[in-house]
Amino acid sequence: MKHSVILLACLLLPACGGFGKPRPEAALYDFGLTQAPPAAAWPARLGMADVEAPSGLDTTAIRYRLEYSEPARVYAYTLSQWSAMPAEMLTLRLRQSVGEQAGGATCSLQVTLEAFDHVFDTAGSSHGMVRLHAVLTDHRHHALLAQTSVSHSQPASTQDAKGGVAAISQAADGALQEVVAWVTTTSADGKLRACFD
């Protein structure tokens, strides 16, 4: 009985030998303090919803894939993670890019995150990949005005979490810029006329 109590105490106390060693803290990453690249003129009455993400991407884990080996399997770095959910970081980045929108929007942009991964093409070569789906809707008529999907990739300089984070961050900026460019082009073509009538 005495031995069982001692063993239990050792399991609960980090000071006992090799038992209960604290795990190393995960390194936290985000997009950094650099401001998002400025966007072109944004339609004045076009609102913006928060970026959404499916359950598999609703996590702070930094995901990676071995495209050359098991392309359908998702891995996660164990000692590195995002400081916030990717959708939250993308929402902030997008709002920084176009500025805060005034109230009274009659139409809105909804962006859904579809991929946010560090992809290894080979054991010594990889890239960050971000894929987004964007939808423009008219609130008053509950109508879908336009939609598009964009995908952006950026080569990673190192084959580890740090390199993956940098590549994903750059890919995210590229994908968001493509979405904003699509919105402004669509607006210029008159496809968003319902937002200004």
Low-confidence stretches: 1-18
Number of helices: 3
The assigned structural class equals: alpha/beta
Sheet bearing the most strands, described? Answer: 7 strands, mixed
Helix content: 25-40%
Order of helices and strands: HEEEEHEEEH
CATH architectural category: 3-Layer(aba) Sandwich
The N- and C-terminal alpha carbons lie at a distance of 81 Å
Indicate the radius of gyration in whole angstroms: 22 Å
CATH C-level name: Alpha Beta
Number of domains: 1
What does this structure look like?
The chain contains 3 helices and 7 strands, in the order αββββαβββα. The protein is of the alpha/beta class. The chain has one domain (23-195): ABC-type transport auxiliary lipoprotein component (Rossmann fold), CATH 3.40.50. Strands 1, 2, 3, 4, 5, 6 and 7 form a 7-stranded mixed beta sheet that branches. The N and C termini lie far apart (81 Å).
Features:
3 helices; single chain; alpha/beta; Rossmann fold; seven-stranded mixed sheet; elongated; disordered N terminus; 197 residues
Question: What's the gist of this structure?
Answer:
The protein is an alpha/beta fold and 197 residues long. The protein has one domain: Rossmann fold, CATH 3.40.50. It is built from 3 helices and 7 strands.
